[in-house]
Write a structure and sequence with these properties.
single chain; 243 residues; alpha/beta; Ubiquitin-like (UB roll); Rossmann fold; 2 domains; three-stranded mixed beta sheet; 6 helices; 16 strands
Amino acid sequence: MALLTPALVIAGAIAVRLDRFSITTVRVDGAQAVNAADVHSLIERDLIGDRYLLVPRRSMFFFPRAEIERDVLAKFPRIKTVVLTASFTPTLTASITERSPQYVWCASGIAPCQFLDAEGVLLGEAPIFSGAVYLEFDGGSAVDGRFLSLEKITAVSSFVSLLKRSQIEVVRAIVAGADEYHLVTKEGWQIYFRTAQSPQTLVENLEAAVGAPEFIAKKKQALLLQYIDVRFENKIYYKFSSP
């Protein structure tokens, strides 16, 4: 039986080169913001040549699936997932899911601003908006195509969402330190906080502060609120100024 092995290998190599088992067409589904033609060209490039000097990369059974998926995700950050299928057909279909813009990031002194998805991945240049269309992050830096860690950007967005339920609308989040952020409200006053704190606890402390008699008395004096500082556990600071 061992003498048959080389023959079987040769026969198999010949079989996988038959046209009926080759990928002749590449189709890209799901592309919207990403140029489907660019994805198509990249996949076609990865299908050129042979694998292990014997098997054509266009074989519907042995095409370099993992390599193509890795290259597509690396080349196009806007793409979140790519699924390749070529089951007994001459067409290789790449079904992609794109990341959706959730925020805008403006680096200090660097233009233009960039779109971010919910995980902090940079998606490309953002236009100039006339109003607060997206929550804007200011300052900080990006590493390997990502702004902030998933943990931190989730902490900020969770706090902002809870504040909105309390009728406090935030339009900007300024990176003030490794774990510190200043939220700018629609009215112009700011909230100082740290992402290590529980968003729910922060909101409860904030609500307690604005409901305190002393705070209400200052508002009745028509003073302008500058900031509320909730960075310190069990202590809340705030500042008013004359109009």
